[in-house]
């Protein structure tokens, strides 16, 4: 990411190492089966957001070295597509071959 991870403050970012155009953000995502009703996804997302915004939960996750944030399902889907495209580009540029 743009900033060093709290749990690894002495480890430089890719940008600090001179690797431009690459950003690998650690994150956790929760996924529902394909075809899950949007109302169910939204209800679960809202409940999860409520839990993550509780001061005790946020503090504990931060103590464990996690960055606490929340994305909508659309934002997570976009993130997944971008992540896949980045790795596909790197694999192709590195001329990696399936074995």
Features of the shown structure:
mainly alpha, 99 residues
In brief:
The protein has 99 residues and is an all-alpha fold. The chain has one domain (1-99).
Task: Explain what you see.
The protein is mainly α and 99 residues long. It has one domain (1-99). It has three helices and no strands. It has helices at residues 38-52, 55-63, 73-93. The radius of gyration is 17 Å and the shape is flat. The model has no long low-confidence stretch (mean pLDDT 88).
Mean pLDDT: 88
Number of strands: 0
Cα-atom Rg, whole angstroms?
Answer: 17 Å
How many individual domains? 1
Largest sheet: none
Overall geometry: flat
Low-confidence stretches: none
What is the helix/strand order? HHH
Provide the helix percentage: 40-55%
Query: What's the helix count?
Result: 3
- What gap, in angstroms, lies between the N and C termini? 31 Å
Strand content: under 5%
- What class would the helix/strand composition place it in? mainly alpha
Oligomer: single chain
List the helices and strands and how they pair.
Elements: H1 38-52, H2 55-63, H3 73-93
């Amino acid at each position: 990411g743009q900033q060093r991870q709290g749990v690894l403050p002495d480890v430089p970012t890719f940008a600090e190492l001179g690797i431009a155009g690459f950003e690998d953000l650690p994150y956790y995502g929760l996924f529902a089966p394909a075809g899950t009703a949007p109302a169910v996804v939204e209800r679960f997302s809202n409940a999860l957001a409520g839990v993550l915004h509780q001061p005790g939960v946020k503090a504990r996750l931060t103590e464990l070295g996690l960055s606490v944030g929340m994305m909508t399902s659309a934002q997570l889907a976009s993130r997944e597509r971008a992540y896949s495209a980045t790795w596909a580009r790197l694999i192709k540029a590195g001329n990696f071959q399936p074995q």
